[in-house]
Design a protein that fits this description.
With about 120 residues, the chain is mainly α. It is about 50% helix and about 10% strand.
């Protein structure tokens, strides 16, 4: 199974931003998933891994992309004008690549949790 080949949410952030750029700056959750999958050339065995087969048919890649979108929105790179639709913010348009190492530090600091 391709579980260990699935990109972590932080490794999906820049591909997600690139997918939205490819889509003209905005796209649906499904369009983003398709474009990221194509751009990263993710094999079917990776794309078919379910996150929690007992509760939903959501794939692990979809689940991790959801977290990537959440963090990118929280830190001002994405906005969601309506459910299921995502678009780049001005901040994202002027940033070629996000430093994902900063996200984990910022997230820990913003939640008040300490390791």
């Amino acid at each position: 199974m391709g579980q260990n080949q699935i990109p972590t949410y932080d490794r999906l952030m820049n591909p997600l931003l690139q997918a939205l750029r490819d889509l003209g700056g905005s796209g649906s959750t499904d369009e983003i998933y398709q474009r990221v999958s194509e751009n990263l050339k993710l094999p079917e065995d990776v794309l078919s891994v379910l996150h929690d087969p007992e509760t939903s048919n959501q794939t692990e890649v979809q689940y991790r992309l959801a977290w990537a979108r959440t963090y990118l929105k929280k830190f001002g790179f994405l906005q969601s004008p309506q459910r299921g639709l995502w678009s780049l913010t001005k901040k994202a348009e002027t940033t070629s690549e996000v430093d994902t190492n900063k996200f984990s530090v910022l997230f820990v600091n913003s939640t008040g949790k300490k390791e």
